[in-house]
Amino acid sequence: MSKGKFGVHGGQFIPETLMNAVIELEKAYDYYKNDPGFISEFNTLLKEYAGRPSLLYYAEKMTKDLGGAKIYLKREDLNHTGAHKINNCLGQVLLAKKMGKKRVIAETGAGQHGVATATVAALLGMECEIYMGRLDTERQALNCYRMELLGAKVHAVTSGTQTLKDAVNEALREWTSRVDDTLYVIGSVMGPHPFPTIVRDFQSVIGKEVKKEMLEKEGRLPDVCMACVGGGSNAMGLFYDFIEDRNVQLIGCEAAGLGVDNEKNAATVANGGLGIFHGMKSYFIQDEYGQIAPVYSISAGLDYPGVGPEHANLHDTGRASYVPVTDEEAVQAFEYLSKTEGIIPAIESSHAIAHCMKIAPTMDKDKIIVVCLSGRGDKDVAAIARYRGVQIYD
Amino acid sequence: MIKTLNAFKNGKAFIAFLTAGDPDLETTSKLIPAIDGAGADLIEVGIPFSDPVAEGVVIQDADMRALASGTTTDKVFDMVAEVSPKLNCALAFMTYINVIYVYGVEKFIKRCAEIGVGAVIVPDVPFEEQNELAPVCEKYGVDFVSFIAPTSKERIQTIAKGAKGFLYCVSSLGVTGVRSEIKTNVGEMIDLAREVTDTPCAVGFGIATPEQAEKMAKVSDGVIVGSAIVKIIAKYGKESVSYVFDYVKSMKDAVRKAD
Fold it and tell me: Which residues does chain A have within 8 Å of residue B73's beta carbon, measured at their own beta carbons?
């Protein structure tokens, strides 16, 4: 009966109006994922348009400065549109087109997924509408304008907490009102089945490349793979091909905001409980009555009260561990990587960099860490300046 | 407990929805007997949820007001326990799965049975996920209500076969809310369902006027009205009881015309 389970997590908890839409999507995906034409078209787009494979960069200065394990950065920030989000969007929007859909809708937090969706929609000639919490449209005003430049219509969502979860609510509502010609392109490994699987598969290119590049450069697999986790798509993309490699430690870095003991945080695995929301059973930050709690992180992309169901299961089975990283630690990592390596990371990715800075010095020099640098930080510069109390004038 | 099916024993049913705790639970405890007195056959009491994804803006706002007034699941149970013994109509809870799941499915459904709530309506639990609730509902004699929608097509009969209490027929695409016109061929959906079930079929989503109610009642066993009632409560707040009474009475009269 229930489909798309990862342990106890996952499933399809959505209104009946959407059920045939997700069944249609599942059927289409099951067909096209094995269709040589689709695979070749997708791979060509990844290579020629997104610029893959992305580099696996040895951060030598950072390694020497921290004095422990060898650090490699998977440079998803170098993809077209500046983040890993494009991998999934190329896959899903291409799939939508194959399914005969004319229009895609998507939610976005920081704006990265919205920009990536709008980009691919422009490329493939699809109508595109993006739902973004009103507060996020203010935090990321530039990305809003960017989406409009790309021909998308941006809706500022004013319900609830006016952030990412409300953008998902509104996109789901919009989808129920227009199912026939529209596909909801979910931005992370979340939502009802088959989305967590589809998004993971399209993002798994990250881990596949890391494996190949690592074998070329070091002749062996890394000891640790780490990535930031909001919904968890870049982490799942990195982890997936390493799940069976039991000696590779997998670490997801959650946004702890002002601290896990402070109510202003978004560390779902650390602070959440089992629940059912946004189409899936997973962990959610909620109160004793199951009301979804407002969450907070300096990073709009990690500001989400849930986590993808496959991550929830990797946590349950102990195959991956999830650690909280605060705003302050992330900002320090943002500044550190900029100064040390000349790479400005997204504030989301900075959460993973921060944890790497904590553990690398405690590890032997012959150990290897791979950090997924999921996006570039240009979009965050103004926010970091504000955080540091610096006045910037245009 | 008044059985859900009883709501359909006196001709076409009028089913009223309101959000518990909007604007506060004391007002809700006056509204429920008033709606009963005005002739409603079943009252759907909404337990507010922070993120009601199947609701339009009217009921979303009601949920926010209810939560802001300090409404919790336990307080809703207490309020309903107090008013239910005096009612002539059947009662159902409408809420989202997370509210029930986190409360504890067994604890929640057992409590429903104890206080006279004969059905639960949970829009984010489709047929495929009904095992999350249906077995426990069965154990306590509470009906787990199934939905069919304009997009259900070949699913209609599969769903209808197992329907308990009543089959909730969603009249339109999209979320709850008042609509000027209902374009779906609701009669066709219901005819398909009736081929496989005797469970009554009630139509909801978008119905606000007596004319719409009469029209929908003609092709079904009852009509469900939510947003139109919630709008009156939003407008008049604590003073809304007599306005809601008059409205429900006019709607029940319209539904009767379809008998």
Answer: 289-290
Closest CA to B200 of B176, B224, B184: B224
Residue A194: cis peptide before it, omega within 30 degrees of 0: yes
pLDDT one-digit tens code per residue, B155-201: 999 999 999 999 999 999 999 888 888 888 999 999 999 999 999 99
Of B242, B84, B152, whose CA–CA distance to A16 is shortest? B152
Interatomic CA distance for residues B18 and B35, integer angstroms = 10
Report how far residue B51's alpha carbon sits from residue B115's, in angstroms, rounded to the nearest whole number.
26
Calpha distance A43→A234 (Å, rounded): 18
Enumerate residues 6+ apart whose C-beta is below 8 A from B175.
Answer: A173, A176, A177, B53, B54, B55, B56
Query: What pLDDT does residue A142 have?
Result: 86
Q: Is the ipTM of this complex over 0.90?
A: yes
Q: Which residues of B touch A1 (CB under 8 A)?
A: 128-131
Judge whether B125 is closer than 8 Å to chain A, CB to CB: yes
Residues in chain B closer than 8 A to A20 (CB atoms)? 151-153, 155
Q: Which two tokens stand for residue A188?
A: 């992370």
- Is A61 designated active site? no
Residues B51, A166: C-beta atoms closer than 8 Å = yes
Q: Where are the domains of chain A?
A: 5-46+85-199, 51-82+204-387
CA distance A118 to chain B (A): 24
**pLDDT given at position A394:** 56
pLDDT of B197-243, one tens digit each? 999 999 999 999 999 999 999 999 999 999 999 999 999 999 999 99
Q: What are phi and psi for residue A56, nearest 5 degrees?
A: -105, 105
A14, A273, A291 ranked by CB distance to B49: nearest: A291
Residue A58 has pLDDT above 80, yes or no: yes
Q: A141 in the Ramachandran plot: left (φ > 0), alpha (ψ -120 to 50) or beta?
A: alpha
Architecture of the domain delimited by A51-82+204-387: 3-Layer(aba) Sandwich (3.40)
Superfamily classification of domain B12-143+207-249: Aldolase class I (3.20.20.70)
Specify the CATH number for A5-46+85-199; select among 3.40.630.30, 3.30.530.20, 3.40.710.10, 3.40.50.1100: 3.40.50.1100
Give me the mean pLDDT over the B119-141 stretch.
Answer: 98
For residue B210, the model assigns a pLDDT of 96
In sign, the C-alpha dihedral spanning A200, A203, A205, A207 is negative
Query: A310-361, pLDDT tens digit by residue?
Result: 999 999 999 999 999 999 999 999 999 999 999 999 999 999 999 999 999 9
- Cβ separation of A169 and B67 shorter than 8 Å? no
A233 vs A240: CA distance, rounded Å: 10
Same fold, A5-46+85-199 and A51-82+204-387: yes
Please give the helix or strand (H or E) that residue A156 lies within, else none. strand A153-157
pTM: 0.97
| pLDDT tens figures, A238-254 | 999 999 999 999 999 99
Per-residue confidence band for B51, with pLDDT thresholds at 50, 70 and 90? very high
Residue of A nearest to B173 (CA): A177
CB distance A21–B151 less than 8 Å? Answer: yes
